[in-house]
Design goal:
Tetracycline Repressor, domain 2; Arc Repressor Mutant, subunit A; mainly alpha
């Protein structure tokens, strides 16, 4: 219990420093002084500064993740994607230091736990679009495009003075991506072999009449068709 309270106190101290002065303000010495602990305690609880920053990012991202996962699903998965995009951009603009900590600090081959959790939520939303037969590219490609564009747009808006931020930029980027990855039809048949393959691949795990090996083989086949861009 005391360990948890100490951990929370350190995270709060680091979060306050981050909000007030950005990442440069979150030094080990400053955090320890603000939390009233010695550096060995910090290292014992978080391992190193990266561990502390990951914990701070997860703490700050909780409100975003709660809001994103709490978005009620509608009958239109593409419209749900729009709502998720808007929530993502709004969180970044409202919490620039936290957002930059998560998405602006690129570590090759790795990503903060909070970013992985957000990616999982996005993947689930993309999968719903695929299951509805409205995805014209593979789920992985769609998720990467959405993530890359949304992240770039949010960081761009953060970098601009508030008076120069054009809300229409985010909407234009959002609609361009949606047009690139989705069809206007509620069935994949209207988008040729790629759309059919993406939809079938999305529902493959639910095809109970097939054996596990058959479902795995079907998934592999549909991945190859989707990747061929027919």
């Amino acid at each position: 219990m005391e360990r948890d309270l100490t951990r929370e106190r350190i995270i709060k101290a680091a979060s306050d420093l981050l909000a007030q002065g950005g990442r440069d303000a979150v030094s080990t010495r400053a955090v320890c002084a603000a939390a009233g602990v010695q550096s060995p305690t910090l290292y014992r609880l978080f391992g190193d500064k990266h561990g502390l920053l990951d914990a701070v990012a997860s703490h700050g991202f909780e409100s975003y993740l709660a809001g994103k996962t709490a978005l009620a699903e509608t009958d239109d998965p593409v419209e749900d994607l729009r709502h998720g995009w808007d929530l993502h951009v709004n969180f970044g603009v409202t919490n620039p230091a936290c957002y930059a900590l998560i998405f602006g600090d690129v570590r090759p081959g790795t990503e903060p736990p909070a970013a992985r959790r957000a990616a999982a939520v996005l993947a689930a939303r993309v999968k719903r679009i695929a299951e509805a037969g409205r995805l014209r590219v593979s789920e992985e490609r769609a998720a990467h495009l959405i993530h890359a564009t949304g992240r770039g747009m949010t960081l761009t808006l953060i970098s601009l003075p508030e008076e120069r931020r054009d809300p229409a930029l985010s909407i234009m980027a959002r609609e361009a991506i949606i047009a690139a990855i989705t069809t206007g039809e509620s069935t994949a048949a209207g988008d040729g072999p790629t759309g059919i393959a993406v939809a079938l691949r999305a529902v493959a795990p639910q095809l109970a009449p097939l054996s596990s090996a058959e479902r795995t083989l079907l998934t592999e086949w549909m991945d190859r068709v989707a990747a061929s861009d027919l």
